[in-house]
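Our example pasted here:


***
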Amino acid sequence: MKMRKLLVLAAAVVMLAGCGTMNVKDFAGRTPELRLEEYFAGQTRAWGLFEDRFGTVRREFTVDITGTWDGKELVLEEDFLYSDGETERRVWRIEKTGPDTYRGTAGDVVGEALGEVAGNALNWRYTMDLKVGDGTWRVRFDDWMFLQPDGTLINRAYVSRWGIEIGSLTIAFRSQDVGQSAAAGTQ
């Protein structure tokens, strides 16, 4: 009887977990329209933090990003500086595979990241080998980006391991081109 109760409880948890998921198509028609190849072309700076599943901030960082778009591929060279002084570099290669879809790779991404955009939102899903201490954890990212009217791009990523959420990332991106345009408009 105990085993049956556990199975019913596990099924309920799985069903409830699926109820809260967003669908990128829900953001269709929202503005400003997000296009990665436009937003990330040039210089971008980001500020972020990682919270564990209990809401404790574990790490803060800044990222300087150089993006180049050749009409087929967007290359993002990301240079991270963590609050503890550690540095990291990641290079994304992102291909536009359709009007609203993208495929990306990076050195620590397992396979490919798949992304879909609608309106002001983008959803990326991918698996990554994440450096943790002296080891590496294989984790899944459910990564959401939302472009704001002032040009700020807000990123919220949910990180899970073995199907259990272990934490989340919050990142705010600011394109230097967007920042200069906004500053010029206020003068």
User: Anything to note?
Assistant: The mean pLDDT is 88. The longest helix spans residues 2-19.
